[in-house]
Design goal:
heterodimer, A: mainly alpha, two-stranded antiparallel ribbon, 6 helices, 2 strands, B: mainly alpha, F1FO ATP Synthase, 3 helices, rod-shaped, ATP_syn_F0_a_bact/chloroplast (chain A), ATP_synth_F0_asu (chain A), ATP synthesis (chain A), transport (chain A)
């Protein structure tokens, strides 16, 4: 298990696997949005039903968890969810998932961190926001600051650890199956690599991937809404 | 017995440390099991609220998992991006 490889350079700027795969995700989502919303009809087509379902589900989720006041957060939350979900599912296509790189998850967790505190300042004012760090005792200020900084760390490490751990386990499984088929049974190629890993792919890529993306947006919503 | 080089000792101890770090998985396992048990109890009490209970349970389990994930991240750092080798 190595870090993301450098695939090519633009000028002297290295472009890693993570950036390339993130571009693929962006392209897929952009095309899906473009073709899904190109000609909206009163009687929806099949694709339009899918798009409407996604948008409606995310709108309802945001309203349930944050209240009507924060309904304008729905586009951001939905974008983060779709991006992370597609990123986590890229392991199924043989790509290295962009979220198996700590840079991606830390960047998104920092966006959440900034959102939490801008929202806190906007609703309480600078004075109230600073006073929030002095509760319940002024002596606990360092602990409060550490606790606030722990939020982006835990958010980013949770996503990264789950996806990276899953891809490491899958890689080890593929190597073991290859060794079994080539060295033990003397087959010319890794025959056992066909089919057997699919069961674990269902758990590590499908279930854990969708669940972790969902956890990320749920925690983002809860933290932002409770920053008042 | 030939002398052990400093680099080999650091690598060996890092491998042991990575294994020790993964003991953190015990706590995550206990926490997730507890969450799942309470979730099963709640579904038994109120079968009609099953969807909500499962969603809450998965959220709680994923949050409980983060301590185990911290251990995993430490182990991964020790194995694949060892910072101690450069100190020699």
């Amino acid at each position: 298990m190595n870090g993301p490889e450098i695939v090519f350079h633009i000028g002297s700027f290295p472009i890693s696997e993570t950036v390339r795969n993130t571009w693929i995700v962006m392209l897929a989502l952009t095309l899906f949005s473009y073709f899904g919303t190109r000609n909206l009809q009163r009687v929806p087509s099949k694709l339009q039903i899918v798009v409407e379902g996604i948008v409606g589900a995310i709108n309802n989720l945001v309203k349930q968890n944050m209240g009507e006041k924060y309904a304008n957060f729905a586009p951001f939350i939905g974008t983060v969810f779709l991006m992370f979900m597609i990123s986590n599912l890229m392991g199924l296509l043989g790509f290295r998932a962009p979220t198996a790189d700590l840079n991606t998850t830390v960047a998104m967790a920092l966006v959440t961190f900034v959102l939490i505190h801008t929202n806190g300042i906007r609703s309480k004012g600078i004075g109230g926001w600073v006073k929030g760090f002095l509760e319940p005792l002024p002596a606990l200020l360092p602990l409060n600051i550490i606790g606030e900084l722990a939020t982006p760390v835990s958010l980013s490490f949770r996503l990264f650890g789950n996806i990276a751990g899953g891809s490491i386990i899958m890689m080890l499984l593929y190597q073991v199956l290859r060794w079994l088929s080539v060295s033990v049974f003397g087959l010319p190629f890794g025959l056992f690599q066909i089919g057997i890993p699919a069961v674990l792919h269902i758990y590590f890529d499908l279930f854990a991937g969708v669940l972790q993306a969902f956890i990320f947006i749920m925690l983002t919503m809860v933290f932002v809404a409770s920053a008042e | 017995m030939e002398a052990i080089s400093g680099k080999a000792l650091v690598l060996a101890c890092s491998a042991v440390g990575a294994g020790v770090a993964m003991i953190a998985g015990v706590g995550a396992g206990i926490g997730q099991g507890y969450a799942a048990g309470k979730g099963a109890e709640a579904v038994g009490r109120q079968p009609e609220a099953q969807a909500d209970i499962i969603r809450t349970m998965l959220l709680g389990a994923a949050v409980a998992e983060s301590t185990g994930i911290y251990g995993l991240v430490v182990a991964l750092i020790l194995l694949f991006a060892n910072p101690l080798i450069n100190l020699l």
